[in-house]
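Form P-L/3: holo structure prediction, ligand succinic acid.
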Amino acid sequence: MTSVSIGWEAEADLVVIGGGVAGLTAARTASLRGLRVLILSKGGPTDTATQYAQGGIAVVAPQEDSVDSHVRDTVEAGAGLVDTAATRSIVEGGQAAVAALTDLGAVFDLGRDGEISRTREGGHSTRRIIHAGGDATGAEVQRALNAAGLPVVFGAAACEVVTGPSGVRGVLAVSDNGFGVVHTPAVLLATGGLGQLYALSTNPPGATADGIALALRAGASVADLEFVQFHPTVLHTPGGLGRRPLISEAVRGEGAILVDSEGDSVTAGVHPRGDLAPRDVVSRAIAARMRALGTDHVFLDGRAIAGFAQRFPTITASCLAAGIDPSTQLIPVAPAAHYQCGGIVTDTHGRTGVPGLYAAGEAARTGLHGANRLASNSLLEGLVVGERVGTAATERLESPRGVGEIHSYTMPRVDRQALQQVMTTHAAVVRDRDGLAEAGQRLERAVLRNMSSRVANGDKRDTTLSAKDIAAQRITELEDGALTLTARVLLLAAAARTESRGCHTRSDFPDPVAALRHSISISLDPDGHPDLEAPIVPTDLPLIGVS
Ligand code: FAD
Ligand code: SIN
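OUTPUT (holo model):
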């Protein structure tokens, strides 16, 4: 085992890893509580999923909506695995979280009556989604948080959370200045999602599941990772790969309809809410129709929406760039990987099972999303739980901190494109036992091949590379390692879930199974292999009756 040569050091009461909605909200609260905070972000100020959020934030309106109704919609979308107590707690925090954001300068769209305008999205029984800049909600949230003047080191990637008997003691990170350590008793993983596991995704390039790998290697558990949400309506262009532009569900909320190449409705007879059914239902209906017609996309018809370009400026720009005018033409769409419903197991204050290690935002699994997230509940969760972590971290102020010698953090990894191809073929919208087994075997073979080639060739680096290029190379390796470990965990959970539930659809087990109405939780065994733990049974409150 080699020892890592450390080029820089810092100290903080709380290290926040990630500069999206969850990380920055936590950092701001912790600063207000008097903690010395340091934020590490491997990208730039807008290289976050938060920046791209379109539809909005689901928040109960004071008069015509209720927490009960929002909880009920969330539970219904989550297909039996939503933790009702956690959901109620998060939904109740919505209005205060948005008020704090407004205090920071975030501006939300107003209706003609001068009140905050609310739209509707799939799975919601009422119009409760607040938005900004029409379809640029995330950009406004990110702008307001970035403007708060928080201490962020951009281009610095966390590689390892260092722990001792009392919990977290520090973080190993890499940047243009080489490897560094931050001595701290508290670390928040707010690293976003795993969209880059798939060939087509709405997620930014940095959505490489780093937080999942960091948490597992620090001894925390993850759950519900088999539930990857595929957004039904992502702009389809021939041969398009990587991050694809989203066509927000709010477009359907304002009246657009989904039709196939024959002009027939895609969701008629599928669900009482039709095109505004929960996301998993609509994505499955589209996948089935594409299979039936032998096509790789369907269409969204938004031509009847008055003032489309004013209401949806971001979407209009993406469509026009692809040669489509959405106010006069049909928009070609297909499902693509969008959201990681599971993640690092936490309570509603972001605490994991490792003292001093917190997680929030898309990286975390609070129990809010269950088997399928309700639209626009993610920004809500990032704001509410982020704020709570900022307060909870004060409990670590007196805990010991300080990192000694650090040994190699190298993780087994495989080529990203090959991994994306395997996951897209075998672990996307519809899965089965043979495909999942094939994916698992191909992954393990690729890991072994990669390890033997590294042993044979050593860990040689091109000595002519600049410090910036070396850092970029190390970050890519870190990301590939995180994606590889996350894929292994996801495949293990997906194989164990021998039923269809939420966004996990098994063609060989098409129905939900009552005995499997629990979350699959996974940690690493002493050899670093993913291992099933005791299942997590969701808390049900009497308000809700879910079969
Ligand atoms: P992100 O905003 O993704 O931030 C992650 C941060 O972690 C980044 O700064 C990244 O650089 C950093 N990072 C990652 N790994 C490391 C590392 N190893 N070291 C250092 N830094 C690291 N949700 C809604 O509620 N409403 C919507 O309308 C909506 N629309 C969406 C539209 C799109 C196109 C997408 C992609 C998502 C949308 N979502 C929406 C989901 C929502 O935007 C995300 O779930 C949410 O913004 C995630 O916030 P986060 O703070 O957890 O992570
Ligand atoms: C959308 O605008 O359709 C995305 C909303 C979300 O992912 O919550």
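COMMENT: Residues 234-335 form a domain with the Flavocytochrome C3; Chain A, domain 1 fold (CATH 3.90.700.10).
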